[in-house]
């Protein structure tokens, strides 16, 4: 059991950036992000013993993180993200948070992504992380062609939101 715990903690340490990215995509409020991060860790720990393909750990972490975040929104009835001119306080603990607080273009992009539905947000997160259509389809649970269609529509929506 101890080696399992150590393996899990090492994986968590190596992939915690994914948990932060997913949390910031779904939650603007810092306390909601922290709660979501903790819930993702819990769900990862629960499902870790069932992980069969150790070669696809990143995909597994994305899938659990995205599904946990969407579930938290639906089950806890956390209010949908509202549009703001500026991002809320962003902790300095992660490179992505630091970059967002300094870069106006990233702020615009993030606000445009907030306007997408939960699934399209997930797809765009994976797309921006340079995942292949096959990987995105596997993580989200849709067909590869549907991934392409949704990315195209999401890009158009993001362009429109940034223009406005």
Topology:
Elements: H1 2-26, H2 30-47, H3 57-75, H4 95-102, H5 104-114, H6 118-128, H7 133-140, H8 144-163
Written description of the protein model:
This protein has 8 helices and no strands. About 10% of the residues have low confidence. The protein starts with a helix and ends with a helix. The chain has 164 residues and is mainly alpha-helical. It is globular. The protein has one domain. α1 packs across α6, α2 crosses α3 and α5 packs across α8.
Question: What is this structure, in a nutshell?
Answer:
The protein is mostly helical.
| Number of domain units | 1
The helix/strand series, from N terminus to C terminus, equals HHHHHHHH
What's the helical proportion of residues? Answer: over 70%
Number of distinct beta strands: 0
The outline comes out as: globular
The count of helical stretches stands at 8
Which spans have pLDDT < 50 for at least 5 consecutive residues?
78-85, 87-94
N→C terminal distance: 54 Å
The chain-level mean pLDDT equals 83
Percentage beta strand: under 5%
Find the structural class using helix and strand composition: mainly alpha
Please identify the oligomeric state: single chain
Radius of gyration: 16 Å
The biggest beta sheet reads: none
């Amino acid at each position: 059991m101890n080696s399992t715990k150590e393996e899990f903690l090492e994986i968590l340490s190596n992939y915690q950036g994914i948990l932060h990215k997913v949390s910031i995509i779904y939650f603007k409020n810092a306390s909601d992000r922290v709660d979501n991060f903790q819930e993702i860790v819990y769900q990862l720990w629960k499902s870790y013993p069932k992980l069969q393909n150790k070669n696809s750990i990143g995909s597994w972490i994305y899938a659990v993180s995205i599904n946990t975040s969407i579930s938290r929104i639906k089950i806890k009835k956390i209010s949908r993200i509202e549009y703001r001119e500026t991002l809320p306080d962003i902790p300095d603990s992660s490179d992505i948070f630091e970059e967002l607080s300094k870069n106006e273009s990233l702020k615009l992009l993030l606000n445009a992504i907030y306007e997408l539905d939960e699934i399209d947000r997930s797809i765009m997160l994976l797309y921006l992380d340079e995942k292949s259509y096959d990987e995105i389809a596997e993580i989200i649970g849709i067909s590869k062609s549907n991934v392409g269609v949704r990315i195209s529509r999401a890009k158009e929506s993001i362009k429109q939101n940034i223009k406005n």
